[in-house]
Amino acid sequence: MKNQMIKIFMLTAVLFSMALYAAEQKVVFDLTSGDEAKIRKHLIANIEGLENYYSANDIEFKVAVVISGDAYKYFVKDIAASPYKAQKPLIAAQTRLAPLLQKLHSVHKVEFYMCKAGMKARKIDKKVLYPYVQNEMNKSAYLIKWQNLGYAYLPIH
Hints:
- The protein is of the alpha/beta class.
- It is built from five helices and five strands, in the order H-E-H-E-H-E-H-E-H-E.
- The protein has helices at 2-22, 36-56, 88-106, 116-122, 139-148, and strands at residues 24-31, 60-67, 111-114, 133-134, 152-156.
- It is elongated.
């Protein structure tokens, strides 16, 4: 009787663990595009749509975004103090995207990570970044970390 109760308990624990695991979806976006329209469609709208879908189905949705390539410029809060200061059209684009990216972070709990090696190469000081952007590692290290934690990989180039 005792062995049978232990088996039932163990089976229940395993099934409960599987149910918890299934109630979570994770994705890491590899954002390299500097195209505002692509960022709106493939990052912002995609994350919001997925968040709505998973939320309606009681599934936790976790998102990490790794920033590199031409995407750096949209995560700089002080363009005048950055290498992008001569790009006048960028100011208008950044003004449009900034509140949307902030909303992803504050409302949808999206985590943003910028490639430290690329920042160094472009001479971007971490002081000019939005406060929600982390920058401790390079792109490859971030992508390896998130994929090893079970995050699906989605590129936006």
